[in-house]
Amino acid sequence: MSTDVHNNNTHEDHDYTTTGLNHRKMLMWAFLGSDCMFFGALIATYLVYQGKSLVGPYPIDVFDIPVTSVSTFVLLMSSMSMVLAYAALTQNKINGFRIWMASTAIMGATFIGFQVYEFSSFSTFHVDIESCAEQKVKYGKFDDYEAELCSNAKEDHVETHDGLKPQTNLFGTTFYTLTGFHGAHVTLGIVWILSLLFLSYKKGMITPERHLDVDLAALYWHFVDVVWIVIFTVIYLFGVFPFPGS
Amino acid sequence: MSKEEIHHPTAKQYFRIAMVLSVITAIEVAIFYLEFLGYWMVPILVVLSTGKFALVAMYYMHLRYDHKLFTYLFVSGVVLATVVIFAIISLFSFGIGRW
Amino acid sequence: MLNFNTLKQATPLVLTLLISLVLIACYPEHNQSTFDAAGPVAEKQLNVFWWILIGAAIVFVIVEAALAYAIIKYRRKDESETPKQTHGNAKLEIVWTTLPALMLIIIAIPTINTLFYAAEPPKHALEQHTLKAIGHQWWFEFRYPSPLDENKEIVTANEVYIPVGYPISIELDSVDVIHSFWVPKLAGKVDMVPAEGNKMWFEADEPGVYYGQCAEYCGDSHANMRFRVVAVPENEFNDWLAYQSAPAIESPDALALSGQEVFKSAGCSGCHALKTVVNKGSKGRIGPNLTHVASRRHLAAGVLTNSEDGGPVNDSYLQENLRNWIKDPNSIKPGNIMSAQGVVYTDPDRKLTEEEISALVGYLTTLK
Amino acid sequence: MSSLPIPVPNIKISRPVNPTGIWSWITTVDHKRIGIMYGITAFILFLSGGIEATIMRLQLAGPELDIVSAAIYNQLFTMHGTTMIFLAIMPLSAAFFNYLIPLQIGARDVAFPRLNAFSYWTFLGGALMLKLSWIGGATDAGWFGYAPLTSIDQNPGKGIDFWILSLQILGVASLGSAFNFIVTIINLRAPGMTWMRLPLFTWMSFITAILLVLAFPVITVALIELTFDRYFAFNFFNVANGGSVVLWQHLFWVFGHPEVYILILPAMGIVSEVLPVFSRKPLFGYATVVLAGAIIAFMGWMVWSHHMFTVGLGPVANTVFTITTMLIAVPTGIKMFNWIGTIWGGSLKLNTPMLFSLGFIAMFLIGGLSGVMHAVSAHDAQQQDTYFVPAHIHYVLFGGAIMAILSGIYFWFPKFSGKMYSEREGKLHFWLMMIGQNVTFFPMHFVGLDGMPRRIYTYAEGMGWDLWNAVATAGVFILIAGFLVMINNLGRHWRNGPTATNDPWDARTLEWSISSPPPHYNFEEIPVVRSLDDWWETKYGTHEKAVPVSGSSDDAHNSDIHMPQPSYWPAVTSLGLFVGGYGIVFNDLLFPYLFAGIGLLITVIGVYAWSLEPVNDPE
Ligand code: HEA
Ligand code: HEA
Ligand code: CUA
Ligand SMILES: [Cu+2]
User: Is D245 in the pocket of ligand 1 (CB under 6 A)?
Assistant: First the structure.
């Protein structure tokens, strides 16, 4: 047995592993498991404070479900496009890969765009007494609650609360933090995807043999998508639902 | 290079899954507007979104085709996070919180 | 040479220590000893402790004895010996899984029982014996329901009287950070959580002065946040409450009168109230109520003692303490709000002169 | 593999070639060197925490002493607790993970050597950041930083900010190394090293790593929320706007309780390695001990509110947490009894490591029992926040974790230094520790039940606490003497002690089959494992089976030894975090967040260079 030591490191992909599984992929899965706890803690905070805001605006005032449904749809589609990019790469269709990657990044950016729009419209939101009737039409549900809100609006909303800022109330604090961190994850994903796209123009950097580099980014991207699935249901759809005490 | 690839779904299947996901989302939003459901909405929406979650994890993240170990690593995080969320909420709802 | 024999000797040593724990801590002089329960809540809690102490002692003796025995018995005698390679014993392992579990279940029963006992005051607790304790950095405010007007409360600080033999319910609150309300001889502590409050109850079997102390770390002077519970017979309690309801005494004494002036001009009255009857639920002042400050056995939340051995207030002690306190509160209670925010302490130009201090001391001493 | 084209235009990233001196340490990716750096750094930090404790004890030696001010005292206990937990015990455990796990599983390095280096440098940055905050006022809100004491109103100084940021940075370090060891243990086991042949220390480390990756995100979130409250006036813990200070406690202890098992499980792993060696007997009930470890870790998630028995969760919640907490005693008991089963009927040699492990059992038992006393929530109302809690803490952490770590240090000293320490001085150290810790910490039980609250910088005369406080203070000096003996013993012999053989203890696991200290590449030939305690069975020819269960040495690509090349980028990336951390604390300096931006930039550069640098040397 030769004992001389070569100071070089073969790529991790090709090393012997006990389970036959790749190191980096396993790392990614462990990280995603861990990241669940990260979002879990944020969601727990949001839910503990649900309905505890002392002043408005409340979720029902600001959420615009149709708009968020569209951005949710965009994010879902970006997941599909990501998986298609990966599939293209494994079949050595480098152009297909580039197109799907680009479209993933664009859809991700669109999602972020929606989020920026949402944040800015929430933060400039104010209850307008005249438009109370209009609001009701817009949501068309939970009339009693809405009516109560509008009457409240007459008393204090308008002058005291101009827009939902993170500082405004607990809803603002928890909502912006939770969705903001999700947005940060998406942004990081976009950077990652764009880096890979860029690298694919360098010879030998993105090849079917090295599909793992893309696979990892894809896993991350899909994870961000599933987190959004949870957020959309728990925060948006349940958010305007009058829970006891809220 | 590993055996897993062989089983990977085709682009068409991926597309079909995307359609299913979109349809579920549409149903969710529709249900949201069905006021008469009242509190029944909560379990229905939970089931639907869990379904979406599972679809993405199993097919897009190919957990279904990969080694079980990956599933364990990920699901332990998911399950623990869920349990902790429920535990904290219930502690607040019968503790000194104001629910 | 040190060797395993020393370890062998260590076991009885530790046991001796354990026994002395009981002896030492039972010694009644100890003002905050949890072993000297003086009311039903503390007693019940103490009982649980004896249960778990006995359980723990049994486990301790068994395990340490087995350990010591094995160390002595199985020392290597011969460098070449190889003992029998046993890998385990399922039966044994089942035994030492179930026995501890059983033991714990037995201990859980009195624990849970006591937990529920301490959580709710008994049914016969009286409305008029519900008082409020409010934590401030670093003193306690107390409020009694007024016997005359149900919309009024009587405010005092740092010394709380209770009638002997009645369950007292206490509503806890805090104006700043988390404090914890603890009178070891009467009941285990309960935290005073800002905005969320809390409640507890206790009862004193015998008249006496019981020491209390804030138990949750609450900033600089956490160590100096103490109070006293004075348990007296019911009639004495009623007299005390009636007396406390009265406004501050106006003394004709010249020094006191000038002190009264200084009290206003130096800004003291901005933080300290001189009447005790307030509307129910009204917001308290920044500083303790001083209406009857000279009737209290301690100054500055139990830190300075105005009496000898818990007896009646001794005026010369009181005057010395007041002087020291007013001169430099920070030296007595580091970080306290009075010296941090009182203008006579923050603004060197308005520093109190010796005469002013004397006047204030003279005045406050009259506030019996 | 041929070298890859360098992707970034005009920038040539190359890896250092055989650096020497200090650069060889900064760029190293060798798990053994990193382990030693972890160990030494953490030991120094442990001493700093000990010095903080000594000052506290002096202040408390008698009633109304005035050695330090209240403000300093409050900083002392906060820094002491934070230091001991995050900067001493965790990294000391990490030192063992690093040094031992690859050796025990028959690997040449960890799965991600550069990530490993990154973890160390990040840890160092976080540690420096916390400790340097003594300049200008350190944090003083207690190691669990209960809201609202940490709010900007209550605590406007920078101390809390340093505490938050350094804990975040330390969290990154811990997460990095935990991921690394999860993958290493799953993926780099030598052929035949099945799960049920894994040495116990590796097993416990694996469980610890899983706990880490699940627990740390929770504290990360709690700290982020606190940061936002402090920096941007968010409302998480702002009572005035409806926030709940109790939420902080839940988040902290959801992390905090698993954290204490993160501290003790590696220690239990060490003890489980030492006892069989010096008893010449396999671990009693190997499978049960492993399972008990896993159960402890699992149940550790269900007990966190036992730190909140007096917060007012109500008797129902307290009952639930009383029961779950008590039940944790059962799997822990299983371990204790199995350890005793291990030495029972063995052939015990009472060398220093063995003494420390036996001492661990004797002392941890006391801490465990006082833990169960805490769990009795009805009486915990009397114990909570008194000195009874520090008594418990120190019996489990000093009597437990530190004793086991000392045992491990002596046990593996010949392996990592290649030298022998003095057995006589080692034993002296042991006895000083045993006596010192009991004299220091046992009286805390007394004063605690006698009503002395914890975290008080002074106490009045005549409370009956004087005597035992004085005794406790005296005990510290015995401990100091002990540590001085240790430093002298190990320091001296590391340089010029007698040379150690490969296997001085007639030990059982793979690390003892190679030279002391091990070569750079650990194993000349990746071993093929045939049974639990493979090395022992090899020596005594008592393998379970002649052939390994699975795998052969061919699988391991033995023909060539590939060792990872050193790299600058892990250290650069950590530097970015360090700078960024400072930048956030001093966000108002020059331009707002200028330095935070610079830190971020350095990190980004580090990450890119790291992922793009050639995996084999271009030169
Ligand atoms: C290494 C760290 C470590 C470990 C292992 C433990 C182990 C345990 N701890 Fe401890 N704990 C801490 C570190 C640790 N703890 C710290 C740092 C704090 C304070 C935090 C702070 O406030 O600053 C704390 C505080 C703490 C509290 C809160 C006290 C309070 O603030 O009021 C409680 C309450 O239940 C508790 C319980 C327990 C229990 C039941 C165990 C059990 O796991 C112990 C189990 C072990 C045994 C019981 C011994 C062996 C068993 C047998 C021989 C079997 C037979 C036994 C019986 C039948 C009893 N701990
Ligand atoms: C691993 C954990 C650990 C360890 C090892 C220790 C070790 C010690 N601890 Fe600590 N302690 C905690 C964890 C730990 N502690 C925690 C978590 C808290 C709670 C904090 C809080 O409330 O927030 C606490 C709190 C705490 C308190 C309570 C403070 C209070 O509530 O007011 C006290 C008081 O006595 C104390 C004392 C000690 C002492 C005397 C030691 C001794 O064992 C230290 C011994 C070591 C030394 C003395 C160093 C020795 C060597 C030298 C000095 C050599 C000379 C130096 C050179 C040559 C450079 N500790
Ligand atoms: Cu109030 Cu401590
Ligand atoms: Cu705990």
Answer: no
How many of the other CB atoms lie within 10 Å of CB of C168?
23
- Residue A18 one-letter amino acid: T
Q: Are residues D322 and D459 in the same domain?
A: yes
Output the ligand 2 site: residues, CB below 6 A. D 47, 50-51, 53-54, 56-57, 77-78, 80-81, 84-85, 88-89, 142-143, 390, 393-394, 397-398, 401-402, 440, 454-455, 476, 479-480, 483-484
pLDDT digits (tens), chain C, 368 positions: 445 555 556 666 666 666 666 665 555 468 899 998 999 999 999 999 999 999 999 999 999 999 999 999 999 888 887 888 888 888 888 988 899 999 999 999 999 999 999 998 898 888 889 999 999 999 999 999 998 888 999 999 999 999 999 999 999 999 999 999 999 999 999 999 998 889 999 999 999 999 999 999 999 999 999 999 999 999 999 999 999 988 878 888 888 889 998 999 998 999 999 889 999 888 888 999 999 999 898 898 888 888 877 678 888 889 999 999 999 999 999 999 999 999 999 998 888 998 999 999 999 998 88
Q: Is residue A4 situated within a structural domain?
A: no
Task: Quickly count: other Cβ atoms within 10 Å of residue C200's Cβ.
Answer: 28
Compute, in degrees rounded to 10, the torsion defined by CA atoms C260, C261, C267, C273.
30
Q: Of C51, C53, C59, which is best to mutate to test ligand 1, by the most ligand atoms within 8 angstroms of its C-beta? A: C59
Report the interhelical angle of C4-26 vs D352-375 (nearest 10°).
Answer: 20
**Which ligand is nearest the CA of C172, by number?**
3
Distance D304 CA to ligand 4 centre (A): 6
pTM of the model: 0.93
Residue D248: φ, ψ to 5°: -55, -45
Provide the CB-side half-sphere exposure for A43 (13 A, CA): 27
Residue C226 CA to residue D466 CA, distance in Å, equals 18
ipTM over 0.95: no
| Distance in Å, CA D479 to ligand 2 centroid | 11
What does R_g of chain B's alpha carbons equal in angstroms?
18
- Determine contact: A21 vs chain D, CB below 8 A: yes
> Do D435 and D308 lie in a common domain?
yes
B86 to chain A: closest CA residue: A44
Residue A224 lies in domain: 23-126+161-240
Contact D314 B96 (CB under 8 A): yes
Q: How many domains does chain A have?
A: 1
C25 vs C57: CA distance, rounded Å: 17
**Which residues lie with the beta carbon below 6 Å from any ligand 3 atom?**
C 135, 138, 179, 214, 216-218, 222, 225
Residue A196: which CATH number? Answer: 1.20.120.80
Residues from D contacting B (CB-CB < 8 Å) are 182, 186, 210, 214, 218, 244, 246-247, 250, 254, 301, 305, 311-314, 316-317
DSSP state, C307? Answer: B
Rounded distance between C-alpha atoms, residue C144 and residue C152, angstroms: 9
If one counts every other C-beta atom within 10 angstroms of the C-beta of residue C43, the result is 16
**SS3 of chain B: helix, strand, coil, percent, to 5:** 80, 0, 20
Distance from CA of A216 to the nearest CA of B (A): 10
Looking at the domain assignment, is residue D289 inside a domain? yes
How many Å from the N-terminal Cα to the C-terminal Cα in chain A?
73
In the structure, do chain A and chain D come into contact, i.e. share 3 or more CB pairs under 8 Å? yes
What residues make up the domain containing B52? 3-95
CB-CB neighbors (< 8 A) of C198 in chain B: 96
Domain hosting D609: range is: 567-619
| Distance to chain B for D250, nearest Cα, Å | 7
Ligand 1 contact, D44 CB (< 6 A): no
